[in-house]
Amino acid sequence: MTKLQSVPNLQRPTLSSQVARHLLDFISREGLRPGDTVPSEVQICRELQVSRGSVREAYRTLAALGILEIESGRRPRLQQMSAYVLAQVFGYALNTAQVNPSHVLETRRAIEVQGAQLAARHVSDAQKKLLNELVMQMRSALGVRDHARRMAADMAIHTTLAEASLNPLNPLLLNALRAPLEQLMSIDLGSRRSEKELLRIVDAHEAIVERVCAGDAVGAGGAMSLHFDLSVASMPNIDSGAKAPAIAAEDAT
């Protein structure tokens, strides 16, 4: 007769996790939106007949997940979605070698190529003006070797394109993926790229912006894909074993 293998003890959800689940169900059931308030800790204690400590732990968990905003003297409120928590997860995955920078770039490419195509369909006149100004800033900064300003304009172009896609997940994922990758790679600020490579990258951004502003979705996607090809080619040691530092909240927004 075959013996049954021993089964590990199944863990019941903690009381605080059940309280957190109750709050999430309440948020969904009531149709709450960012900025709306949720019941206070005291109210939940009375309603569920549980200890204040378990309720406080549940609220802190939801705050750490970027769901609740908790301030002393005010009722907890729902937060706008933020890239911060996702950036922490991606940074942890990079630091522990569960993914490598190439994986991050591949994912960013997929998001940004489609994002550029969507931006070409939905970009506003104000965003077109901003994109062209940012390209000029990139080129001007390159001319005086101001790599910090060039990189700032570079990132602003990608952020504006993501916003122009009208898919709110695009800027969220872009920022969450970008923060740990750029800190991991210590993205060079020009110090490890030749003048010719940097000029090609500026030209690639200009080509993306031209296609987006012209409403050419196919061309915009192709230009963005070429930009990633150039970026990867200029970073031959992309998967070296450097570790990313801890990510500050402001770096992931």
TrEMBL record:
SMART domains: FCD (SM00895), HTH_GNTR (SM00345). Gene3D superfamilies: GntR ligand-binding domain-like (1.20.120.530), Winged helix-like DNA-binding domain superfamily/Winged helix DNA-binding domain (1.10.10.10). SUPFAM superfamilies: GntR ligand-binding domain-like (SSF48008), Winged helix' DNA-binding domain (SSF46785). Pfam families: FCD, GntR. Keywords: DNA-binding, Transcription, Transcription regulation. PANTHER family: GLUCONATE OPERON TRANSCRIPTIONAL REPRESSOR (PTHR43537:SF24), TRANSCRIPTIONAL REGULATOR, GNTR FAMILY (PTHR43537). The keyword DNA-binding applies. Residues 13-81 form the HTH gntR-type domain. The keyword Transferase does not apply. One of its GO terms (molecular function) is DNA binding. PROSITE patterns: HTH_GNTR. This is DNA-binding FadR family transcriptional regulator. It comes from the Bacteria. InterPro entries: GntR_C, TF_FadR/GntR_C, Tscrpt_reg_HTH_GntR, WH-like_DNA-bd_sf, WH_DNA-bd_sf.
